[in-house]
Amino acid sequence: MNELLSLLCFPQSWDNGILRFNIVLIPRNLNPLKPLAGGPAFVDANIVFNAKLIAGLDGLPDSTTAAIGKTANILNPPTDIRAAWEALQQQFEQADGIVVDDGETAAKRAPAPGSMKPIRKYLPLSYRNAFNFVKARSRYALTGDEYQCAIKNKPAEVDASTDRKKIAWGKLVAYSLRNPLLARKLGLIYEASIDLRDMPAALDNGGWLYIALDNAGDFSTTLTRTYAARIPNLKNITSRKLFAVNQFRVYPAPDNSNSAAYDEIIRESIIYDDGFAKIVHASQPVNQDLSIEDDNSNPPTHDVGIRLGWEDEQITIWYNRQLSQKEEFSNLPVDAPMGVFGYRVDAREKGSADWLSQNMVVNTAPVVLANGGIEIMAAGTPLEPGTEVTPAAHGDIANEGMWAPMYYTSWIGKSLGTSDKDAAEIYQLNNESVVDRNNGTATGKIIPKKTFRLYEQDADHELPLRYGKSYEFRVRLMDISGGGPAFNDDPTRGGENPVEDVSFKRYIAAGALQFEEMDNFYRLQASPVAGAPFPDISVLEHILKGSSTLHVKRPLLSYPAVVFTGKYDKPVELMKARINELNADNDPRPFEVGLPDPDVDAFMVTVEARSLQMDNALSENGKESYIVLYKKKFTIPATAAFDNSFPLSIRYVDFDDVDLGNTLPGLAELSDDEIVLPTARHLRISFTPVVSAAGIDHPLYEVYADKNIELGKTVMFTSFKASAAEENLLSLEPD
């Protein structure tokens, strides 16, 4: 029989004999506005729910096993379901230009079980190190280099594009379920309970709970595919949170022919019946290649915060069971849909007792349909959408299949339930145009990213992310009804690593130092013309233009890393102001959005002299003919804005003899703001920023920053200045 509806049940809590649960009633990819076979349309139907409770956990649930029948007490049932559906369809079509199409609905049926390639998942080191990992539980959970190869060697074939302006009704249902308050208005989710105080021992040995459609309503159970939830043993338990990680098909007759295939599914239902993840792991990228986990020789240039993952093997098993509808190793068929719809991440600073939900948001304006006629959410209503784990195809999905992501989200101290408003405003992603540096007006046309920011992070759950601090994370599971444990609930069961501890450090190397003289050079330099090439700015004398002082400035640090330092009062506002105040300056260089790096508190100057072309032995790397004369470190004083420059005096000196490989004479007499350059020598002068907090002598060594970023990106100049006096160039040795 082709069932028209799916009926699922998600227990939420047991409290003094009251069993609370959510009912999910889903039209199986059909038009809910049109009459169903032999009955009214879904939106017009009178639906009466009966709760069925099978006491005990002997065998799988079926509708013939004697069950306790209870009328489900529905809390705040929806009223005009048709009006809500029609308004939602109209809003999609008018506001977004998306048509909910019956033809698309007929074409978008679920593929046959087993017809799609399995979903694979790379198990990162942080997952394997989080517990006593021995070998993967699934053949599709991998530890080799297959994932790196997949993302780096994408085939030329790509999937055919689809018409994104037409969607099926099933997709509209999926969209709606992501906001449980909207789904309740649409008659998809019902909040319910049954009173078992007159039967106090009913769940002493656990049981199965499912929902049946009462014959007093317009729909019968024969039109419905019904699923049950497993209820654990509640003997002597007064109050407890409940969670159904899997659903179990309620067959019309007992069928234990393949009950062994459900052993693993029942095990999962026991482990996760409190709704908390059991293996949580995290890491920070240490390499520009985010797939490289343990080589920090090439530090990243952009900080993505803390990458989080959880239940890597288990999610892989769940996804592939959904695709194949079989148990992986026995290959026996199962009908046990995954009840998990998303994940909610809690964080706290280590040492704090209170968890803060990083998915909790509030709406800044009312959420309405029908031009305000149907209110879904009043302004300021808390909502906790889940973080979803979405596989992706890296090429041809039909032949290569999909991969689950290496990590599921990155936390930067902002809400995981909405996009980063600060980043969009700093980089002007929503603007129609940006300032053109050639004329100082907003004529640089771009394609704006249209984002309607109806939600913002709940202020009660804000937690800044800062270098040098330690954080703890846990993950709560969210079911299809939007239910699951709250941020202030505690788990009932333990796990291999249910709480992950992360010491957040800076792995971003400092960028190149800036020089006021170079900035002025670009601003004042006329555009090059034929026959008059642009001067070589790598020559120090071209930058100095006769001056004896070079003004050294800190490199810029971009968002969000500059926020992570915690050393600016209002870094986001400062960055917005910097780009908004951009004027025409004739500077041909790309404009870099950032603030002076507050962690750079010094810089190193290395002066090298060129020797004979093949004389490489005394060079630092043994491959060049430049030999170090001396190195000198200079401290940059800190100011509130960190925008001050260091005036470095440059003094040219005629030396009678420069003995390569030995200390240059007179260095001890140099002042703290001075370098000396020998004349009549081809020199190379390197300027390298220093993050002292990464140095071994700093009290925050290996706490605030990684030791490999003590030295940042080097800027190199060449120099040659003729000697002022050239006497006694040749001398005769006495006989």
Structure overview:
The strands form eleven sheets. Strands 1, 2, 3, 4, 5, 10, 11, 12, 13 and 14 form a ten-stranded mixed β-sheet that branches. A four-stranded antiparallel β-sheet has the order 18-17-28-29, with no helix packed on it. It is elongated, with a radius of gyration of 33 Å. The protein is α+β, with helices and mostly antiparallel strands and 735 residues long. The longest helix has 15 residues. The protein has a domain of 167 residues.
Write the layout of secondary structure elements.
Layout: E1 5-15, E2 18-27, E3 49-55, E4 68-71, E5 73-75, H1 81-95, E6 99-100, H2 102-107, E7 119-122, H3 125-128, E8 141-142, H4 146-152, E9 166-167, H5 169-177, H6 180-185, E10 189-195, E11 207-213, E12 224-231, E13 239-241, E14 248-249, H7 263-271, E15 280-283, E16 306-310, H8 312-324, E17 340-349, E18 356-357, E19 361-363, E20 367-369, E21 374-377, E22 382-383, H9 397-400, E23 402-403, E24 409-411, H10 421-426, E25 433-434, E26 444-445, E27 455-457, E28 470-479, E29 500-503, E30 514-515, H11 516-524, H12 540-544, E31 549-553, E32 556-557, H13 561-564, H14 571-580, E33 595-596, E34 602-610, E35 626-635, E36 645-653, E37 674-678, E38 683-690, E39 715-719
